Structures are given as C-alpha cells and as structure tokens.
Amino acid sequence: MQNSYWKRQFYPFWASQLLSIFGSALVQFTLVWWLTQTTGSATVLATATLFALIPQIIVQPFAGAIVDRLNRKKIIILADAMIAIATLGLGILFFTGRVEIWHVYIIMFIRAIGGAFHYPAEMASVSLMVPEDQLSRIAGLNQAANGIINLISAPLGALVLDLMGVEGSLLIDVVTATVAIGLVGFIRIPRQQRLEKSSKDWFGTILQDMKDGYRYLIGWKGLIVLTILALVFKIALSPAFSLIPLLVYQHLNGNAAQYSLVEVVAGVGIILGGLGLGVWGGFKKRVYTMFTGAIGVGIGIFALGWLPEGKFYWSLLPMFLIGFMIPIVDGPISAILQMRIDNEYQGRVMTMFGSLINLSGPIGLIAAGPVSDALGIQIWFISAGILIIASILFGMFNPHLMNIDSGPVNGKIFPVSAEE
To answer: Chain-wide mean pLDDT for the chain?
Structure first.
C-alpha cells in the first residue's frame, strides 16, 4: 500500500467519522444534563445508560456478522442516516414541548442500534485502509482526536443549551451526520474478502457466521481472559461514568458549566494521553501499556469517590488522570484486535467481544442506581476503583493474557468453516 495513497483515502474518512462523533457528543452531553436537571435521579441516569447498552449486547453480534458479509461503506452510511432520523424526531418532540423521559430512552435505544452497526463497520474498515505498522499510531491519534471532541463538545453543549435549547443541540447532530454521510460517499473503502456463499437462507447464514465468530474468539485463550477481565472492569466502570453528572450536581454542588469543565479537563487528558501514546508507542508488550492505563483509571475513579462534599475543583485532578489513562487502555487493545484478528472475521469477533463485555453493563447499572440513591453517590466510585485495580493485578498473573500480543497460538485459530 503506497504511503501517500492510503493517507489520501483514510484521512478524509477519519475526518467524516470525527465530525459524526462530535455531533453525537453534543447530543450525549445535552440529554444527560437534561435528565440530570429534570429528575435528579441516579436510577434515571442508570436506566438511560441501560437503554443505550442493550443494543450493544443483543444487536451487535448480528451486526458484526452482517458487517463481515455486506458492503461496510454502505452500512456506515445507513447507520449514520438512521441515527440522524431518530435524533430529528426527538428534536421535534422537544420543539413542540411534548417530550417525556421515556421518549429519550427510546431515541437512545434507536441511536444505539445504529451505533451497533456503525462501530464494527468503521473499525474493520480502518484495518483495511491503514498499513499494519501504522495502526498503533492511528489508535493514539484517534484517542487524541476524541479528547479534542470532548474538549469542544462539553462547553459548546452548555452554550447551545443556553442559546438554543435541547432542540438546537439535536439539530446540530443531524447536520453533522448529514455532512459525514456526504463525505463517506466520495471515499473509496476497500472491500473485505468475500465470504463463501452458504446453502442456508439469509438468516441461517448470519447465524452460522456468528457461530464462526464465537468459535474464533473462544479459540484464542488470551482474548477469552481479556474478555473476562473486561467484564469485571465494566461492571465497575460503566455505572461510575454514567453517574459523574450526578456526582457533580449533588455531591460536588456543581452546575452545567462546571460539569462541562469536568468534561473539558477529561478531554485535555485524553488528548495528551493519545498524543503521548502516538509518540511513545507504548511498551514493547502492548499488554503492559494496557495494564498501566487501567490502574490509572482505577486510581482516578477511587479518588473521585473519596472527595469531600462541595470540593468541586479538586475533582479536576482525578478527571484529568482518568482522561489521560483512557487512551493508554484503549489504544493497545484496538491495535491488538486489528492486527491479530483476520480481517474477514473482524466484524464478528469485535462485536462478539464487545457484546460479551457489555453484558456487565446492565448488572452494574441495575445495582448502581438504587445503591447510589440509598447510600450516597460516592460509594460506587470508591468500590469501582478498588475492583478495577484488583482485577488488573489478577490479570498480571495470567500467562494467556500476558502473551496476547503474540496473537492466537501458532498464529492461527483452529479451522472455522462456513458450514458444518
């Protein structure tokens, strides 16, 4: 792949996806803060996050199989269009004053379905567009770009709320999604290796493809251990992230502008962490880099819960640490999966991996809302930090996880056939 050619194709594609993410970040900030101010309930915030997680658990495995079999470029366009239409509908409800909390839940659910198709299609396309030796660098730059989006979207979201209301933020997302769709339409994304045709009907073929993806995953012991470890990690982390607005509002006595400042500080951390990873590249064994980042996140979450009431500005230090360490966790994992999973299986295996991990979300969220409402919002952050650090220390003693950089044993998975 010629050096200049892949850049001419990839960077416009990357820019289009970042634009779409920016619009989604505005919507996320707006809806979370609207729910926080309207209800003041940890249970409501946890429920909203649950509605956004359910499609990742149920739909993603099907989406991954479809992404590996159909044109990924078309899937990205259709997914963005679905999200934009759902967002436009919610904007109309806000504009007419007819919106209710359950409307927000439903739109979050629909947007998450679109995301369940968009994410694997995008990730699997990147590994076809970018040379293998550049994947870690791109992962770091991508994390930095996401940090910039967080940096911009939070204060801009607060400003848009003041000037245009919730419906203004939703309209911006529709516009950015439309522009992103237009850009992707002019970009050439290489087609993945075509899978063999099956004698089964379409649904039976998709089920068989899903089964093949599952067999691929369980055939790689290092990935199985990583999945289990990530399950524990997410049980602790997902509720903590969903409850940060309420921690700021209730325990730290913050307002919308201060919540946006929290997001800005985390965004600065992500930018610096992503740039640092892009320049440094991490340890020779990527798993060491991942461990370092995960422990840093655990310390930051624990510190948030330990803060005395009303000490808002002290919360900026652990939020910066969390933001800085997120790319140090995610970058190595993305690079390992993109480099070591055969591309024709990437959609299925990545979504199966994500779906299994996200099973932890409902468990944590169902517990976190009532526990936080009954015992105080900070108790979950303290417990989450302890659980994260303990799980990472356990992972350091597992030989399969420690050797995950090498990929599957002997560089391959046991044979996976299109039919049994």
So the answer is: 83
Q: Is 186 in a helix, a strand, or coil? A: coil
Q: Is the dihedral of CA 269, 270, 275, 278 positive or negative?
A: positive
Residue 33 domain flag: yes
**pLDDT tens profile 7-60:** 788 888 888 988 888 888 888 888 888 998 888 887 888 788 788 878 877 888
Claim: this prediction has a pTM higher than 0.90: no
Q: How far apart are CA 45 and CA 259, in angstroms?
A: 15
Q: Domain count of the chain?
A: 1
Calculate the alpha carbon distances from 81 to 182, 263, 336 in Å: 11, 27, 30
In the chain, DSSP finds a helix count (H) and a strand count (E) of 15, 0
Which tens digits make up the pLDDT trace of 67-125?
888 788 899 999 999 999 999 999 999 989 899 999 999 999 999 999 889 888 888 88
Q: SS3 letters for 62-130?
A: HHHHHHHHCCHHHHHHHHHHHHHHHHHHHHHHHHCCCCCHHHHHHHHHHHHHHHHHHHHHHHHHHHHHC
pLDDT, tens digit (0-9, with 9 covering 90-100), for 332-386: 888 888 788 877 787 788 878 877 777 776 777 777 777 777 777 888 899 899 9
The range of the structural domain enclosing residue 384 comes to 3-193+200-410
How far apart CA 257 and CA 164 sit, in angstroms, is 16
The CA-atom distances, in angstroms, between 132 and each of 71, 105, 137, 138 are 22, 39, 10, 10
pLDDT at 349: 84
Establish if 418 belongs to a structural domain: no
Return d(Cα 83, Cα 80) in angstroms, integer. 5
Cβ contacts of 181 within 8 Å, gap of 6 or more: 77, 80, 81, 84
Please list, in sequence order, all residues whose beta carbon lies within 8 angstroms of the beta carbon of residue 313, skipping any fewer than 6 positions away: none
Mean pLDDT of all residues in 250-266 = 84
Structural domain contains residue 354 = yes
- Please enumerate in sequence order all residues whose Cβ is within 8 A of that of 88, keeping only pairs 6 or more positions apart, or say none: 170, 171, 174
Please tell me the distance from the alpha carbon of residue 420 to that of residue 417, in angstroms, as a whole number: 7
**Euclidean distance between CA atoms 364 and 361, whole angstroms:** 5
From the list 293, 345, 282, the residue with the least C-alpha distance to 127 is 345
| CATH number (domain holding residue 7) | 1.20.1250.20
Q: Do 61 and 208 form a contact (C-beta atoms < 8 A)?
A: no
Is 325 inside a domain boundary?
yes
